[in-house]
């Protein structure tokens, strides 16, 4: 009898610990790994910049023309707002994931629907970015390779990084960060003798309206900093989250301004007609008829950046679904979601023409609404409710 009572006591204590961790940790801990704020920044930077440096220059030039370098500066405001609100929201609800915060703020059923929208958005966007990655490689380099091979091989590779968890993903991003950033600087340095700086004139000849229109496109990429909400609960130094988040936005803004100016100085008025502006600019590099054809540098930047970007989004999808469904582990979801991403790479964008139209017209507004605007609404409601509780003298 004593043995049975002891076993029951142990069982009850385990259940109590589980319930306390569920109440204090705000649900099942799906990800137990820990990373630093610097590692978070090294994930976020290539996750935003990887596709932006190739696509944004031509898309922005279509509206802003020679003033395309100003547009990322304006668009970075969206990044600063997104990061600031995400960190503040996490400070208001420490230890909770974004889905629990949403449900607590607007109610269980509306919260579940909003969470479903976020998950679906990331699945669709990840399918779109993998399609863009595959189309770039096939059209520019691997012309005889089936598109599905390039897409499926990248998803297969990213699945192993995601399976390792946030710590493995952070270490991979930390390792690849210099391999992504240094070739970009190397490319800019080699193109500098071909700069025609006069292409920047006249500045603001058509006023601010074209510049603002051009800023809409990169603002969609800056809104993707919403990813930070999934990494904040895993930080070991949460006090530095705001600092490194702001530095990440600033670094992305400087990189996009540099990429836009480089493309403008080399390609000039022909820039809006180019799809992958930096790759087209790299054709100009030629030293002593020997050091030339450096499209491979652009390809290396794209592949390394795409690996980190797709892995980050892939991880957020499986982690988000597990948190949304209150599962204890996200790993069983990795391979089914990987197959779904490959399928969405064809469903969401059936052709390269549709892909270009989606990136220039649909994606910026879609990204802003689902990520930044939703985050602002949740933050405003949470802040109002918090002030109401304080007035009523109620504690959290």
UniProtKB/TrEMBL annotation:
Subcellular location: Membrane
Pfam entry (one): Spore_permease
Native source species: Bacillus thermotolerans (Quasibacillus thermotolerans)
Protein name listed in UniProt: Spore germination protein GerKB
InterPro entries in alphabetical order: Spore_GerAB (IPR004761)
Signal as UniProt keyword: no
Entries under NCBIfam families matching the protein: 2A0309 (TIGR00912)
Membrane topology value: Multi-pass membrane protein
Gene3D superfamilies registered for this protein in UniProt: Amino acid/polyamine transporter I (1.20.1740.10)
GO biological process: spore germination
Family membership: Belongs to the amino acid-polyamine-organocation (APC) superfamily. Spore germination protein (SGP) (TC 2.A.3.9) family.
């Amino acid at each position: 009898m004593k043995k049975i009572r002891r076993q029951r006591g142990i069982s009850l204590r385990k259940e109590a610990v589980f319930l306390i961790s569920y109440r204090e940790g705000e649900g099942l801990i799906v990800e137990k790994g820990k990373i630093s704020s610097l590692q978070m920044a090294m994930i976020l930077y290539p996750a935003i910049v990887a596709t932006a440096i190739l696509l944004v220059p031509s898309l922005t030039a279509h509206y802003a023309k020679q003033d395309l370098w100003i547009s990322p500066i304006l668009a970075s405001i969206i990044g600063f707002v997104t990061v600031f609100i995400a960190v503040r929201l996490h400070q208001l609800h420490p230890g909770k994931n974004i889905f629990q915060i949403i449900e607590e703020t607007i109610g269980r059923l509306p919260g579940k629907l909003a969470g479903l929208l976020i998950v679906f958005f990331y699945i669709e966007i990840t399918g779109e970015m993998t399609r863009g990655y595959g189309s770039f490689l096939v059209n520019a380099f691997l012309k005889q390779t089936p598109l599905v091979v390039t897409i499926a091989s990248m998803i297969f590779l990213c699945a192993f990084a995601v399976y390792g968890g946030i710590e493995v993903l952070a270490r991979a991003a930390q390792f690849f960060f210099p391999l992504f950033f240094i070739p970009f600087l190397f490319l800019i340095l080699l193109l500098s003798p071909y700069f025609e700086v006069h292409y920047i004139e006249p500045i603001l000849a058509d006023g601010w309206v074209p510049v603002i229109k051009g800023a809409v496109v990169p603002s969609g990429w800056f809104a993707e900093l919403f990813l930070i909400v999934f990494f904040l609960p895993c930080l070991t130094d949460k006090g530095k989250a705001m600092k490194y988040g702001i530095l990440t936005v600033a670094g992305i803004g400087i990189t996009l301004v540099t990429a836009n100016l480089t493309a403008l100085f080399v390609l000039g008025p022909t820039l809006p007609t180019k799809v992958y502006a930096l790759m087209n600019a790299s054709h100009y590099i030629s030293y002593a008829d020997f050091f030339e054809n450096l499209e491979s540098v652009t390809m290396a930047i794209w592949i390394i950046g795409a690996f980190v970007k797709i892995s980050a989004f892939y991880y957020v999808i499986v982690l988000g679904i597990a948190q949304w469904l209150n599962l204890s582990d996200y790993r069983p979801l990795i391979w089914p979601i990987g197959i779904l991403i490959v399928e969405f790479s064809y469903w969401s964008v059936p052709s390269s023409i549709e892909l270009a139209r989606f990136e220039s017209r649909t994606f910026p507004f879609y990204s802003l609404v689902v990520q930044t605007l939703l985050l602002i609404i949740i933050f405003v409601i949470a802040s109002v409710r918090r002030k109401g509780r304080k007035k009523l003298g109620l504690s959290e």
